[in-house]
Every structure is written in structure tokens, then in C-alpha cells.
Design brief:
This protein is of the alpha/beta class. It is built from 15 helices and five strands. Strand 4 (82-86), helix 4 (91-99) and strand 5 (104-107) form a beta-alpha-beta unit. Helix 6 (170-194) runs antiparallel to helix 7 and helix 6 (170-194) crosses helix 14 (335-343). The two termini are 57 Å apart.
């Protein structure tokens, strides 16, 4: 940050300006204003150079308090410290000056050594604070950029892992991309129905990307079960159900820290086959114990599986799919989730088509 090295002296009495000018000339560049309006003009013109404003309380056109009020409205008071100079102070005017942001008040007649010391202390304090704020802004920007890069890396790894399932079965890979689109639709409708405070845009995108990993555990399922064209035996179905556990075990190996994104990934992977009545798997959770994001992915997963052809079944129409889900043919879903599902119906069908 370039150091400010200019003082503005605003006083309608020339002798007062000359006294202050004599004290600081040679140490700072000096600007002078004869009234409040001139002071404001100079503040605008040199706002990035002025280190301190000596401001008389009583001046024509605009007085010192009016100038400070203007500075407050134009975000100058936080970067340009003000020392009020007055010979006609009252308790009321002092209080008002400090309320408006005055750094100090000096009463006429003043002692040059005292003015010099106070001015130096205030300038150093303000410039140090501004330097810290600028450094903090830089650090904050760097942290945001670092966070953005980490999020991009997370998305890349998420897509890479979900693509492994696609290599096992092209059908599953296409399913992953559709689930992401449908999850975004459902979450936006959920937020619209139940309040903006539910999820931020950023959280929704994290959940959408996390949904790509809901079936990642299928990597560990043997080909003879995963790719079987017919109905699974009871034993094979029990093994298939373990993909929720296998997926979480894989995520544990990849985990570096407990982030919000990791939590969404883990809970969606583990709980997307849980059902509202407790008859799902792997943990038999029920009701609101199932995280909302896992509930959303669960109904989206079922919807997509029904409306698309699989090696073991024909496709159903969206209308048939809605009827089956509401009838509980695919397990029980929460009333709020079904309300959201109905609200999103047109968007879901359009995305399907």
C-alpha cells in the first residue's frame, strides 16, 4: 500500500490554517480549504492521498459536522481520520463529532507539540489499520481461491470415481449424470417450498456433485451380480445391497478432512436406500433421521431407474412412475418429499425427456 503523505486543513480563518501549516510543512504535503464545500471538493479529489483532515467546527457554507456527515455517507471516514479543531465546543458538539467518527478533538488555542504528537499517533494508527485490512482482504481472496480450487478438485475426483462405475456398466454411468440433474431440480423445489433458509446455492451444488457418488460402492460388486440380466436371487440381492457400505468404506479411504462436501457424499452414499418407514437399508433409519439430501437422492434414484430401460426391466412412463412411487411400490417416502416430488413433476418430466 502506498503511504499517504498529505494533510488537509479546513478552517475559514487564515491564521489558524497558517499555524497548522507551519507545524507540518516540510513533513507533509499541505492542502487548504476555506469552508466546508471546498473541503469536500478536496476530499474527493485527493481521497487516496490524504492522511489526516484538520477540520474546524464552525465554517461557512458547510460546518465541520456537516463535512463529517458527508464523509460518513461516502465511506471516507474509515480511511481519512479527522481531528476536529474548535474554540467554541460544547458537550453536545463534542459528542456529535465523536459519533460521526472524529478521531480526536483539539481546542483552540493549541500547543504545537501536542498537535504534532496527536496527529502522528492518529496517522500511524489509521495507516496500520488500513494496512492490516488490505492484508486481510488479500488473504481472504487467496483463501477463497484456494477453496475454489479444492472444490474443483473435489468435483473432478467425484466425476472420476463415478466414471469408474460407468466403465463397469455404461448404464450406470448415464444414470449418474441423470441423477445429478434431477437432484438439482428436486433441491431447488424443496427450497422454494420450505424456505430460502433451507439451502444456499453453494450447498445445493455440493449436494448435486455428491449425488454422483451414490452408487460408487457398486465398483466392489461382482460382475455376475452387477451385470446380471435377470432377477437377482435373495443371496445376490443381499450382496448388491452392500454397495452402500462398500461405497462409504471407499470414501473413508479418500477422506482428508471432515468437510461439508464429504458429509454430503458419505450420507448420500450410505442412506440413499433408507426409507421413511424404516424398511430400507443398510441401517434401517426412519423418518427425519434420514438426511434430506439422502432422501432427495433416494427418490430421484428410484424415479430414474423406473423411467429408463435396464438390462433386467423395461421402462415405465413418467406418469406410471409417479403413480408407483406414490403407491409405495418402491418403499415409503416422507410426505414432504412427495409434496416436493409433485411440485417438481413438470421439470422432472422435461429433464427425463
Amino acid at each position: 500500500m502506498e503511504e499517504r503523505n498529505t494533510l488537509l486543513i479546513a478552517d475559514d480563518v487564515m491564521i489558524n490554517r497558517e499555524l497548522l501549516k507551519d507545524i507540518f510543512e516540510g513533513k507533509y504535503n499541505i492542502l487548504e480549504a476555506r469552508d466546508g464545500e471546498e473541503a469536500i471538493e478536496l476530499l474527493h479529489k485527493y481521497k487516496d492521498e490524504i492522511a489526516l483532515l484538520f477540520l474546524d467546527l464552525v465554517m461557512p457554507k458547510k460546518d465541520g459536522l456537516e463535512v463529517m456527515h458527508y464523509m460518513s455517507l461516502n465511506n471516507m471516514i474509515s480511511t481519512i481520520p479527522v481531528i476536529m479543531i474548535t474554540g467554541e465546543a460544547t458537550v453536545e458538539s463534542d459528542v456529535k463529532a465523536y459519533e460521526l467518527g472524529a478521531a480526536d478533538i483539539i481546542y483552540k488555542p493549541f500547543e504545537p507539540a501536542v498537535v504534532t504528537r496527536r496527529a502522528k499517533n492518529i496517522i500511524e494508527l489509521f495507516q496500520h489499520r488500513i494496512s492490516i485490512e488490505n492484508e486481510l482482504a488479500i488473504r481472504t481472496k487467496e483463501l477463497r481461491e484456494s477453496k475454489r480450487k479444492i472444490e474443483q478438485s473435489n468435483i473432478f475426483l467425484t466425476n472420476a470415481l463415478s466414471s469408474v462405475v460407468e466403465f463397469r456398466s455404461m448404464e450406470s454411468g448415464e444414470h449418474v449424470q441423470r441423477v445429478k440433474r434431477l437432484t438439482r431440480i428436486m433441491l431447488r423445489h424443496w427450497r422454494a417450498l420450505f424456505g430460502q433458509k433451507q439451502f444456499t446455492d453453494e450447498q445445493i451444488e455440493l449436494m448435486v456433485n455428491a449425488s454422483a457418488l451414490h452408487d460408487v460402492g457398486k465398483i466392489a460388486i461382482p460382475d455376475n451380480i452387477l451385470l446380471k440380466p435377470g432377477r437377482l436371487t435373495d443371496e445376490e440381492y443381499e450382496e448388491m445391497k452392500k454397495h452402500t457400505i462398500y461405497g462409504c468404506q471407499m470414501l473413508e479411504h479418500f477422506k482428508q478432512e471432515e468437510t461439508e462436501f464429504y458429509r454430503y457424499c458419505y450420507e448420500i452414499c450410505r442412506y440413499h436406500h433408507e426409507r421413511y418407514d424404516g424398511r430400507g437399508y443398510p441401517d434401517g433409519l426412519s423418518g427425519e433421521d434420514i438426511p434430506v439430501w439422502a432422501q432427495v437422492v433416494s427418490i430421484v434414484d428410484v424415479y430414474d431407474a423406473l423411467v429408463n430401460k435396464r438390462v433386467y426391466k423395461a421402462s415405465f412412463t413418467p406418469e406410471e412412475t409417479y403413480r408407483m412411487i406414490h403407491n409405495g411400490d418402491c418403499g415409503a417416502f416422507s410426505p414432504k418429499l412427495l409434496q416436493c416430488f409433485d411440485d417438481a413433476k413438470e421439470d422432472m418430466i422435461e429433464a427425463t425427456e
